Amino acid sequence: MKRLCTICARGGSKGVKGKNVRMLAGKPLIAHSIEQARASGLFDTLAVSSDSDEILEVARKWECDYLIKRPDELATDQAAKLPVIRHCVAEVERLSEETFDTLVDLDATSPLRTPADIAGAVRLLEESGAGNVLTAMPSRRSPYFNLVEVDANGIVHLSKPLSEAIVRRQDAPKCYDMNASIYVWRRPVLFQSAGLFNADTRLYVMPEERSIDIDSEMDFRFVEHLMISANSEIKSR
């Protein structure tokens, strides 16, 4: 069973300028994901894909096995995630002359995950027979209870009304927020699937405190605060 980990990081961040190489708790943001992949002990190969030479240089300094330059058409704001990952995997397989069975992509903007989270998501894929695994956290709001929509006539209604009204959120069906942290595929599913959700997709649930996806300056500062606080607590023990 050969496993490849990819980290795909674009250079043109809008919400937080240069966030993938910005220093976070003492190291570049992308370095946290690189270290987590290494610490998991799961991967035969680790690759970083980017359109940015600066990001690839940081990845080189953090000893990634392959640095994959992303073509311009896969580096736009409109570029979908799956083609980017497929391109990276195909390039690594071409360069290494190897084929990988399990493909894992770590989002560089989700640095609070742990190596144990990575191992849990991979184990769920390989032991359940799932085609792919996505990570998520329990949703703080339910479309069955307190998420609403406003229709064309200005009328407010529940996003997903049930046939019988409920008065407690706890009675609603369980819902989850995708946390954009870990994506795991069997190779055929990655290259043949039309999207992230398939009949045999499984969900690996992570806690909220490890599920923050950095998409704004506030997110960045909050994540850094959590990391520094956690490190201080460990040192004081």
From TrEMBL:
<keyword id="KW-0969">Cilium</keyword>
<dbReference type="GO" id="GO:0008781">
    <property type="term" value="F:N-acylneuraminate cytidylyltransferase activity"/>
</dbReference>
<keyword id="KW-0966">Cell projection</keyword>
<dbReference type="InterPro" id="IPR029044">
    <property type="entry name" value="Nucleotide-diphossugar_trans"/>
</dbReference>
<dbReference type="InterPro" id="IPR050793">
    <property type="entry name" value="CMP-NeuNAc_synthase"/>
</dbReference>
<keyword id="KW-0282">Flagellum</keyword>
<dbReference type="InterPro" id="IPR003329">
    <property type="entry name" value="Cytidylyl_trans"/>
</dbReference>
<protein>
    <submittedName>
        <fullName>Flagellar modification protein B</fullName>
    </submittedName>
</protein>
<dbReference type="Pfam" id="PF02348">
    <property type="entry name" value="CTP_transf_3"/>
</dbReference>
